[in-house]
Amino acid sequence: MHCLWCENEVEFSLTWKSLLIPSREKVLCSSCRGKLELLQGERCNMCSRVSMEKLCSDCKRWQSLTHPSSLQWNYSIYKYNYFMKELVAKWKYRGDYTLGVSFQSIFQEHFKVHFNHLRKSAIAVPIPLSHERLKERGFNQAQMLTEFLPIESCSPLERLHGEKQSKKTKKERITGGNPFKLKETIKKQVILVDDIYTTGATLHQAARLLIDSGCPAVYSYTLIRG
Asked: For the purposes of burial, counting CB atoms within 10 Å of the CB of 17, is it exposed (0-12), middle (13-18) or buried (19 or more)?
């Protein structure tokens, strides 16, 4: 099998387990996987941003806008370095669905460490795409990540079509109107799932809608911290 990024051969260890349950995760070679940077060291307790402060400047801004904060906290796994940026572009903007499989194992592992205490009391909710954006891309990367998790999930949020978040400035993301509407209320704790936490606007807006409708608590789990 060849790496989906660089076409190098992907190493494969032949074991009884691999014969019985073929691996679907090694779509990247060891060299490419080595370019993915895990978040390490001190980080903000609220958003996973690398920071020596327990509460970073972005989170202080969110707390000044919403009292109390609608989002309990976010946990992210990877840094948004140059290689990850290129990988994500190919994965979700150029429709290479299979690349997402390379994140399955680590997404499950970190969930067990940081969210296992919520496993029986919470439900996972992927951040949705608008109908237009879903048709354009062919799949929702947040839904894909959600399907990796060993927890009940549902899709109570609907996203209104508008300009891409990546095209907006930081100020526009934070001060813009809520792009979501709620199709059904959720009375359990919620873990929102998305690929990237950048300013936090998307997740805070979704969380606010859920909290206002009676959801007791909202957390978020993201693959990358931008």
From this structure: exposed
